[in-house]
Amino acid sequence: MMTASGWSANQFSALLGAYHGDLGLTTATTTALFAVYVLGLIPGLLLGGPLADRRGRRPVVYTALATAAVATCLLMAGPAAAWLLWPGRFLTGLGAGALLTAGSVWIKELSSAPHDPSTAPGTAARRSGLFLSAGFASGGLAAALIAQWAPYPMITAYVPHLVLSAVAAAAAGRAPETVRTGSAHRPAAHEARPTTHDHVSRRGGGASFRRLIAPVAPWVFAAPTIAFVTLPGLVGARLDGWQTVYAGVATAVTPGAGLLVAPLARRLAARHRLATAVTGLAAVALGLLVGALAVMAVQPALALGAAVVLGAGYGLCVAYGLTEVAALAPPHRLARLTARFWTLAYLGFFAPYGVTLLSALWSPQAILAAAALLAVLTLGAVARAARRERL
C-alpha cells in the first residue's frame, strides 16, 4: 500500500524532462503539474483519516487504489490530450493522500497487539517510511528507464503502477481489518466517551505537535523534491540527452538514501527523542548547500551527492514525525493526527515551484543557500521548544 502510494507520486517526476522536450511544456508548467499533486493530496489526507476511522481501513484503501489507477490512466492519455495531465495529477494526489493516511495507520495497528505484540515501539513508523521510500525510489527509476528505451515512453512508463495497484489491492484483501464498524460492533459508551485524560492528552499533544512536529514536517518532502525535481533541471546542460535517465537516478538515490538511514534513525531515537529531527534537519541544510555548489559549478555528479544528503535528511525527518505522532496521539485520534502530519509534510512539494518563481528575482544557488539557512533556523526553533518542554 505504502509502496504504491510512493510509486504513484514519483513516476511522474522522472518524466518532467520528457514532457518538457516532447510535448513542448514550459518549465513553469511542468513544475506546476508536479505541484498540483498536493492540491489533491491535502483533501485526500484530511478526508482519508476520518473515513478510515469510521468506515474501516480496507474500504478507504480500496477506494484510494482505484482512484490512483484512474489517475494513472489519465496520465497515460496525456500525450494525446495534454490537459488531461492536470486532473490526472490531482487525482493522483487524492488517491495517494487517502492511501497514505489509512495505510500508515493500518500498518501501525497491525504492528502492535493483538496482531503483533512483540513489535518494538517505533517499528510501525519505520515500516511506513521504508515502504513509502521504496515506492518513491523504484517508481521514479522504473519510469525513467522505460521512458528512455521503451516505445511510447509516456504511456508504457505508467504500466508498472497499474500492476502494483492490483498487487496492493490483493494484499489489502488478506490483511485483517482493525476497525469494527456497524451497529453490532459500536464501542460501548465508556469506550467512546473521551476521558479527562483524553482531554488533557489532546491539549498537550496538540501543543507538542505544533511546536515539535509541525515545523519539521514540510522539510520531509521539500528536501527530496528539490533533489529530484529542481536540481536535475539546473545541471542538465551537461547531460547531453541523458536528462530523463539522470532524473530517474536522482529520484532513486534520494529516497534510497532515506531507506539506508533507517537504522541510524532507530539508534538516534533511542539516544534522545529529538536527536532524529536535529540530525535530519542538519542533513537537509547540508544537502541544500551542496546543491547550491552543484548549481553554481553545473556539476551533475555533485548534484547527485546533494540528493543523497537530502534523501538522508528526508528519511530521518519522516521517521521522527511518524514516531512522534504515534507517541502523542491517543488511539481514537491517531488517523486524524497522522493526516495532519502528512498534510504539512506534503506542503514541501511546492518547494520546486517556489524555487522556479523566486528564480526571477534571485539566482537558484542563492535561493538554495537561503533555504539551507531556513532549515537551520527550524532546527533551532525545535530545539528551543524541546527545552521548554524539558525533553
Q: How would you sum up this structure in a few lines?
A:
The chain has 391 residues and is mainly alpha-helical.
Report mean pLDDT, rounded to a whole number.
85
Helix count from the secondary structure assignment? 18
Proportion in helices: over 70%
N to C succession of SSEs: HHHHHHHHHHHHHHHHHH
At the fold tier of CATH, the topology name is Growth Hormone, Chain: A
Q: Characterize the main sheet.
A: none
What structural category characterises the helix and strand content? mainly alpha
List low-confidence stretches: 183-204
Say how many strands there are: 0
Give the amount of beta strand, in percent: under 5%
CATH superfamily: MFS general substrate transporter like domains
The radius of gyration is 20 Å
- Our measurement of the CA-to-CA distance between the termini, rounded to an integer number of angstroms, reads 34 Å
> In the CATH hierarchy, what is the architecture at level 2?
Up-down Bundle
